[in-house]
Amino acid sequence: MKQNLNPGKVRRQINIINDIVFSKVRDLEGNEVELKMTLLVANGNSEMRLVLGRDDEQCNLRQPVIVWINGNGWRKVPSRTYQAAESVYLAEHGYAVAVIDYRHSGLGVWPACIEDVKTAIRFLRANADTYYLDVEHIGAIGRSAGGHLASFCALNDDQYRTAEWESESDHIQAAVDFYGPVDIYTLDMQNILKGEDPRQTREGLMIGGDAAYIAATSRKASPVNFISDRMCPISIFHGNLDPLVPLSQSENFYELLQKKGVESDLYIVQGAGHGTREFVQEEVRNRVLSFFDSHLKQPQERKHNVKTQRSI
To answer: Which of 52, 66, 90, 184 has the least C-beta neighbours within 10 A?
Structure first.
């Protein structure tokens, strides 16, 4: 069969730029650690650049950025990109996606992880010209522990800033929290009631120290304790059957956000546990896209228009 096609040129090629070093920090033993990110960005024709040294069409479009924060209980992940395939749909819809490292609990204790995430945001702003990024529109998304860190970023306060890229802001314009443990203190108390040693729990290892230190510091590591009118809009997704992070974590967070007047949505995903397949379905993805589009894109760029509701 011979056939002519005229597909047009609306979609741009997505390129993966791997192992971008954004920070150099110390681990628990004082050794230097390089933190890296993987960037998914539609920044021109990489194939033609390699072969001919030029693009067919130079990309001058500044793309809004979404920082993808891995979960796994703040512990070491198999690789930075082990969930990166789940972020491709964001890149397909016009976002540069930065999948980032941060010090897991084997390399650092609180506040190392949130310091690293904030450093990554400042790096992206400092290097926006290199990667064609829109520094005025940056969002964050994370699952579980990543949701906790995305929620902390959403506070837009100036806690836990380090000296790297210090001239830049680490404030963001929108955040998505997938079933994040946003009240670490309450989880810590629940673990103790269940007879668990707080020093050996995911939360305890992230904070470090003895039981008394964990109890005291867990309040400082809980976004629920720092809600203010500085916060950016936030969208929360949580399964009603989550066995690891109780739904009440997100419900209480949402109620506090509403009382403070923070623009926020809570989606209770029916039949979903912790990170189960319900969260990667089109209905959920479309709501994430609609939320980010409304806060990170100009009106003429928005294509999703999904009404907010409490349960899906």
So the answer is: 52
